[in-house]
Amino acid sequence: MKRALILAAAAVLMVFNITLAQETAEAPKTETVSKTVTGIVSGISYNFIAVMFGQDEKGEVAQEMAFNVDKSVKIEHKSDIGSIKAGDTVSVAYEETTQTSKDGVKTSKRMAKAITFLRPAQVKPEGAENGSLESSGNSADMPLPIKGMKKGD
Fold it and tell me: Which of 89, 44, 36 is nearest to 68 (CA)?
């Protein structure tokens, strides 16, 4: 009788250990890292911001990152997120949470923690579509560069 009781107890402990090991192996691994990126705003709303950053050899934008934004995000140098526009340069401090499933599949989420406004979008002067001002050749058509100068000076 004692032997049967000991065998039953051992069987229960083995099942418990196997179940515990399976639960431990199935729990996803979560890692959170704080990072910062600086770039040009390519899209923005009250719950989302996208930033283009980095350049390739041709001087073109290489990457774009999107961030979730919630009500707790800190906005610096502007009154609120609605006053930041596409084309503005910002720095975004964010937390990236990466979760690895039991199958080894990684999923990441980026949550903005602080958005710092650095400078407004660059505005091209009128007529500077191709990088140079076009003129009809008539100096009377050109705007005066300095206030107070008279035409013909």
Answer: 44
Count of domains forming the chain: 1
Q: Indicate the residue type of 118.
A: L
CA distances from 94 to 11, 32, 35, 65, 113 (A): 49, 10, 5, 11, 5
On whether residue 46 sits in a domain, the answer given is: yes
Cα–Cα distance, 45 to 58 (Å, whole number) = 30
Report the predicted TM-score, pTM, of the whole model to 2 decimal places: 0.62
What would the pLDDT profile of 76-121 be if each residue is shown by its tens digit?
A: 999 999 999 999 999 999 999 999 988 889 999 999 999 999 999 9
Q: What whole-number distance in Å separates Cα of residue 66 and Cα of residue 44?
A: 9
Query: Where residue 56 sits, what CATH number does that domain have?
Result: 2.40.50.320
